[in-house]
Amino acid sequence: MSAQESKATIREYLDTFARDWQEALNRFVADESLAEHIRFFQQVFPDYTLEAHDLIAEGDKVVLRATLHGVHQGELMGMAPTG
């Protein structure tokens, strides 16, 4: 996969995630530990969104710099929700 194809895949993931995070998880995430991390964040920040700032690709590697926006609604590392 070229760097441009890799970037297109990440953009497709982000677009899908914005519509339906579970569909994005099912279509794009093969690693179970990453899937568990995403599910955990959905419990703690159920309305969170990702704001992409930079998408950089070289060879078979892609880096996304993004900001996560959400409201703390579930326990996080022993800390009660702050709303």
Give a written overview of the molecule:
The N and C termini lie far apart (about 40 Å). Helix 1 (about 5-20) packs antiparallel against helix 2 (about 20-30). A hairpin with a 2-residue loop joins strand 1 (about 50-60) and strand 2 (about 60-70). This protein has one domain (about 5-70). It is elongated, with a radius of gyration of 14 Å. The protein has a two-stranded antiparallel sheet. With about 80 residues, it is of the alpha+beta class. It contains 3 helices and 2 strands. The longest helix has 17 residues, at about 5-20.
Summed over residues and divided by their number, the pLDDT gives a mean of 94
Strand content: 15-25%
Cα gyration radius (Å)? 14 Å
Q: Which range best describes the helical content: under 10%, 10-25%, 25-40%, 40-55%, 55-70% or over 70%?
A: 40-55%
- Side-by-side strand order of the widest sheet: 1-2
Helix count, per DSSP? 3
Distance between the termini: 42 Å
What is the number of independent domains? 1
Strand tally = 2
Question: Strand count, sense and closure of the main sheet?
Answer: 2 strands, antiparallel
Structural class: alpha+beta
Q: Which stretches are low in confidence, meaning pLDDT under 50 for 5 or more residues running?
A: none
Order of helices and strands: HHHEE
- Principal-axes geometry comes out as elongated
